[in-house]
Amino acid sequence: MYFSAKEILAQLEGTDKRICDLAIQNETELFETPYDKIMEMLEERYQIMYNSAHDALEKEIRSLSGLTGGSARKMWDYYKKGSMICDGTIIRGAAYALSCLEVNASMGLIVAAPTAGACGILPGCLLTVAEKHDIPHQQVLEALATASGIGQLIVKKATVSGAEGGCQAECGSAAAMAAGAVVEMLGGTPAQAFDAAAIAAFTIGLAGTAFLGGAVFAYLNGLLPLMVVLAVPGFLGWIAPYFCYQKIQRRRAEQTAPIIEQKNDEIYSVCEQGCRLLTA
User: Fold this and answer.
1) Predicted structure pTM score
2) What is the distance between the alpha carbons of residues 43 and 47, in angstroms, rounded to a whole number?
3) pLDDT tens track, the chain, 280 positions
């Protein structure tokens, strides 16, 4: 059991375990559920996420009221044209996220991660990055466990309810879960994953929510070009922790490389001395 990121990091210190390992272990012990069953449940949720992220791409799905729908298909058509200014990764992720939202609005099956209103953020980020980097399926499932572990902490310390904490409680929490999951999926340490989650939840997530909120109002008023203009930086705000992590990782690698080289030289020197003593 854990109640904070600090506790998780303390439990993982000195081991090669990740946040996902501790989250799965917590589930197996708390609910007396075998590891294989936990992975089956993660696979089931992954399939639902995958389906909801793709169902509205090729066909228009509208809400029961008929007020919203069709945006995912438009975004996907734009992506397939290949004429975007930004990297296609961002547009593809936005299309996935919009598809989830439209499936939800039409009373389709989605995964509340952590809420139905924010259901597109985690699959939009996770599926897109996994496809871009050819991440093995097992690692994607483990990333879902990482996201759930981060979500548990948010629920214990704050709220994911939009009624209680506003849009930031939903979208900020989902962005934190997605950022931490992506970082760990790409090989980041637990500490780096929590850093990314914090950045997403408290800074970038807020900005992204503001932009996407504006995009929603623009869409409802029929201003589709303005919707795209606002939606792209909004999604950028949610996926930016991944790029922040890459930059931080490069910087840390540059700082630690000379130290590692120095230690290797010291080890080599000691081994040389030992060899001389043995052969003397």
Assistant:
1) 0.74
2) 6
3) 788 899 999 999 999 999 999 999 999 998 899 999 999 999 999 999 999 999 999 999 999 888 889 999 999 999 999 888 777 898 999 999 999 999 999 999 999 999 999 999 999 999 999 999 999 999 999 999 999 999 999 988 888 887 777 677 888 899 899 999 999 999 999 999 999 888 777 665 566 666 666 777 777 777 777 777 777 766 666 566 556 656 666 776 777 778 888 888 888 888 888 888 887 6
**Rounded CA gap, 112 and 175, in Å?**
13
DSSP string, the chain: --SSHHHHHHHHTTSS--HHHHHHHHHHHHTT--HHHHHHHHHHHHHHHHHHHHTTTSS--B-TTSSSB-HHHHHHHHHHHT--SS-HHHHHHHHHHHHHHHHHHTT-----SS-STTTTHHHHHHHHHHHHTT--HHHHHHHHHHHHHHHHHHHHHS---HHHH-HIIIIIHHHHHHHHHHHHHTT--HHHHHHHHHHIIIIIHHHHHHHHHHHHHHHHTT-HHHHHHHHHHHHHHHHHHHHHHHHHHHHHHHHHHHHHHHHHHHHHHHHHHHHHHHH-
53 close to 111: Cβ distance less than 8 angstroms: no
